Amino acid sequence: MTKVIKNGTIVTADLTYEADVLVDGGKIVEIGKDLTGDEVLDATGCYVMPGGIDPHVHLEMPFMGTYSTDDFDTGTRAALAGGTTMVVDFCLPQPGQGLLDAIQMWDNKSTRAHCDFSFHMAITWWSEQVFKEMETVVKDRGINTFKHFMAYKGALMVNDDELYASFQRCAELGAIPMVHAENGDVVAELQQKFMAEGNDGPEAHAYSRPPEVEGEATNRAIMIADMAGVPLYVVHTSCEESHEAIRRARMNGKRVWGEPLVQHLTLDESEYANPDWDHAARRVMSPPFRNKKHQDSLWNGLQGGSLSVVATDHCAFTTEQKRYGVGDFTKIPNGTGGVEDRLPMLWTYGVGTGRLTPQEFVAVTSTNIAKILNVYPKKGAILVGADADIVVLDPEKEKTISAETQASAIDYNVFEGKHVKGLPRYVLTRGMVAVTDGEITSEPGHGEFVKRDPAGPVNKALSSWKELTAPRKVERTGIPASGV
Ligand SMILES: NC(=O)NCCC(=O)O
Ligand SMILES: [Zn+2]
Ligand SMILES: [Zn+2]
């Protein structure tokens, strides 16, 4: 049965035009005027855009002695509710655990996904086994991104020698390393210092993770990636110090992408000064929220092109879980929700204010990351042959964000009370209508794993350049006799 989206304005990362979209068998099969289909979805007054891709979520993440509460069922349903049609989670081997063993666990927990998904693989320790299994992860499992935590000392953190070894392996395999860039050694010292001073509340989480720890680690990761000859993706870029390192690297010809989160763009550090412990703790995430100066830097980076993707790092813990850290902020599970609100918040505070054009909005919520992940134009496009992952966004539809009406399974929302304008009228996941004017009709198990080939265009270009400019032995004639 075909579906036709009629009378809308198509907005892609580079074009805006009026046309209908015909969908059949989960794909876009025709784009043009006056199309007909078995089922008509009226898009009058709406923008027809590629569904959002959130490349940074943690569903049922084992972390800090618990599991994040939104799992692949509730988390991907929440994603669709907000117009996001693909998410990428992080497969996290425990230190000592094999990568393939960990993928098996992630396969098992992702069977109830409502929308398409993929995994990044985390490198949480280093060994001959990890080195070997990385090849299978890339070639057999279709995972072309490897995440490295430079923070969370004693848990997920890896050191510079491990970073360099893993980055080199990524270069060989045509994969892209990603970093959580915070100096974990300094954070650990600062955590101890604040606790020793009796500064044990959620605000001390922010004090222990100043922008400098992020700027230093971002710059270090960029330089290590450059020496390994591989592109780099920096997750949750939250501050000018980190953005500055990325901006400078890009201007100097390095292949680096920065990913701000919608939370860092729209919420600031004053949240941690709230006298209500729960309010502040619910907003504890790493890196923490920053001040207006940093927010402006991130918005400018999106506008100017030095930052590429807006994600959420959706990692939702309940208030009860957050309370594990009463009396010791270092035990508050790090993470916030956001997957459901990313598109409406970014449309409202980005397009609604003139900080972003609608086309820039599509670029940073969908198309850019589809290209980075090497899944464009299957994903991130309104083109014939692309998956029919589509959001029909009504720019006049409004709501006030509230935990009471959200799809996410947690008991609060960090955007509570924010008024957003620009909401999905329809959301389609591979051709299936999953949302109609706020009513969710998606199905657990509909989501499929998206395989991603290695050696995307940027990897290839960088390898060519590194090969061309590699240090070479100077061939000499007439070498003088040794002086000894
Ligand atoms: N960001 C955060 O606080 N929690 C999720 C894990 C991570 O991405 O660091
Ligand atoms: Zn992180
Ligand atoms: Zn994360």
Automatic annotation (TrEMBL):
GO biological process: one example: pyrimidine-containing compound metabolic process
GO MF annotation terms: dihydropyrimidinase activity; metal ion binding
Domain of life (superkingdom): Bacteria
Residues in Amidohydrolase-related domain copies: 47-418
Group of enzyme by EC: hydrolase
Organism listed in the record: Salipiger mucosus DSM 16094
Function per UniProt: Catalyzes the hydrolysis of dihydropyrimidines and of the structurally related DL-5-mono-substituted hydantoins, to produce N-carbamoyl-D-amino acids.
Protein name, as recorded: D-hydantoinase/dihydropyrimidinase
Co-factor(s): Zn(2+)
Xref: NCBIfam families: D-hydantoinase
Alphabetized CDD domains for the sequence: D-HYD
Reaction(s) the record says it catalyses: 5,6-dihydrouracil + H2O = 3-(carbamoylamino)propanoate + H(+)
Pfam families in UniProt: Amidohydro_1 (PF01979)
The record's account of how the chain is modified after translation: Carbamylation allows a single lysine to coordinate two divalent metal cations.
Residue(s) carrying N6-carboxylysine: K147
Similarity-based family: Belongs to the metallo-dependent hydrolases superfamily. Hydantoinase/dihydropyrimidinase family.
GO cellular component: cytosol
Complex and partners: Homotetramer.
Keywords noted in UniProt: Hydrolase, Metal-binding, Zinc
EC nos: 3.5.2.2
